[in-house]
Amino acid sequence: MNATETQTPEPTPKKRISWGAVAVWGGLIALLVIVGLMLNRTQRGGVAIGDTVPADLEVTSFDGTTYRMGDLRGKVVLLNFWASWCTTCKDEAVALEQAWRMFQPQGDVLFLGLDYVDTEPDALVYLARYDITYPNGPDKGTRWAQTFRISGVPETYIVDKEGRLVYKKIGPFQSLNEIVAAIQQALEK
Asked: Is the peptide bond preceding residue 138 cis, with omega within 30 degrees of 0?
């Protein structure tokens, strides 16, 4: 080729859209949006001390009775999250039942056990083994656990007569006296 000849440039190929790449990037963006929304939700936290517990929370006990938080206003309510597979739940089971038997005759205190991620047969064996007589029911769909943002079991929450959360205990109670003191404090509010 001599210096006077001009070379025609070869045409550049057009870039084609790869639908596979679009799908991958679209999926990645959707996943990031979902993760972001979930992180935002967890950052808000659960019901905090002083907050009103949602009145529409309800549980149907193993005996078929339905308990709705809005209907329990006027009573101090002890909510105990537990599971039959939880070893530390067993440590407090007897003391919780003793406290229930102390306060039940007054009529202004209700204990409500919320069985967390468990099977009904195992839960019923647990309740019979520890002779638990206060109402208990499964937390189906973990709605209660999500509302309170529990971190594990056992956890106990006490709601005052106006429906406000006044006490939170993560882990098992260490004694009957600890339970009684927490309930009496809620009764005095």
From this structure: no
